[in-house]
Amino acid sequence: MAVGPLTVQATAAPPRGACNNPEPGRPVERLLPWAQEMLKPQRAWPFSTGSGITVAVVDSGVDADHPQLRTRGKVLPGRDFYLVGSLPGNYDCVSHGTGVASIIAADHVADIGFQGVAPGARILPIRVSERETGDTGQVEPIDPQILAKGIRYAADSGARVLNLSMSGDQDQGPVRAAIAYAVSKDVVVVAAVGNRQGNSGDVLPSYPAQYPGVLGVGAISTTGARLQGSQFGPYVDLVAPGGSVLAATRRTGHAYSDGTSFATPFVAATAALVRAAYPKMKAADVIQRLKATTTPARGGTDGSQYGAGIVDPYRAVTEGMVLTAAHQLPSMQAPPPDEHALAIAARWRTAGDEARWMTSLAIGGTLLIIVLTALLVGGHRRRWRASRSAITRNHEDVQTELPPERLFARAD
């Protein structure tokens, strides 16, 4: 859905006291981002825009007043579980959740290249954190109890897709149980695999990506290679753009960001496209379809760094797939011999043998004629007399060479 140019500043503010030093808006970026250029989600829009599908963004909240998210009904009120009370989740202090939501469902705006992969989808904002990092630069942990409440709220509020742009190294019981609850409610759960890989070749833990039923998303850079820091392991199901990814910021404008957090919404949005196109398809089948329709990545298929490959919105929506098991084909039986064809082949072989025999005979006759002709011509020239080399005049004219060991033999 297209809206007007970005000429009006967003004025909506978080509730009083909700944000400590909120981030300002950013300048508008008008160029088409590389991620949208590579994935080309517009190819899928004639078949599905994600319309009718609610995607829950469990994050730092979503600024519903951003010009590309302010379409009526696009961002639902949601819920704030971070602060005590009954605040909505449709505001953001740090832009993280707003950026994630914009990659999923941002509207097209005139003269702006950036837009969401599933612009017809709705966003259910669920606020479970305020800042990505604390004052010391360390990652601010999310309370597992709060996160679990947010996940359960999403599953109970009709979300068909759940975006979790977060990752930790600890198996938290409340979160594990909440994920299992969402999976049991037929929700497609999509989670980032994390950015802690560094230079280590070890497989690091990643939760909630490695919980059963969760689709784990890694990140690639503009070159198509795994983004440095993007974790690898058996929990990487597929990858999406995550390096220098353009996304909306709170209030207005855009900013470039890195990480698996921003690769995850590309996959969540594609899941929304599929769920809108195939309303009766179960979540497990949606996940299987997303993996089966990826674009090949550098690591090949089923690799620990790239999973099944790069998410492909168009193929995920349009490609024909059969989800039932293949029927066993009957064993092949050799057809009976064709007697007529065999007889014809035998006649050709016989004719070929005869032709080769006649050819050989003709060549032999020709050679014989040539030899006889040469003899006749030579005899006529000598008037039929023997040549000198054939005549021995007397015994003295004959010189015989003796073997070397006899030349110097001593006479007795």
From TrEMBL:
MF terms (GO), sorted A to Z: serine-type endopeptidase activity
Location of region: Disordered: 1-24
Pfam families assigned: Peptidase_S8 (PF00082)
GO cellular component: plasma membrane
Location relative to the cell: Cell membrane
Keyword RNA-binding recorded: no
Superkingdom classification of source: Bacteria
GO BP, sorted A to Z: proteolysis
PROSITE patterns cross-referenced by the UniProt entry: SUBTILASE, SUBTILASE_ASP, SUBTILASE_HIS, SUBTILASE_SER
TM spans (from-to): 357-378
Chain ranges of the Peptidase S8/S53 domain: 50-309
Entry similarity comment: Belongs to the peptidase S8 family.
Protein name in the entry: Type VII secretion-associated serine protease mycosin
Organism: Kribbella amoyensis
Upper taxonomic lineage: Bacteria, Bacillati, Actinomycetota, Actinomycetes, Propionibacteriales
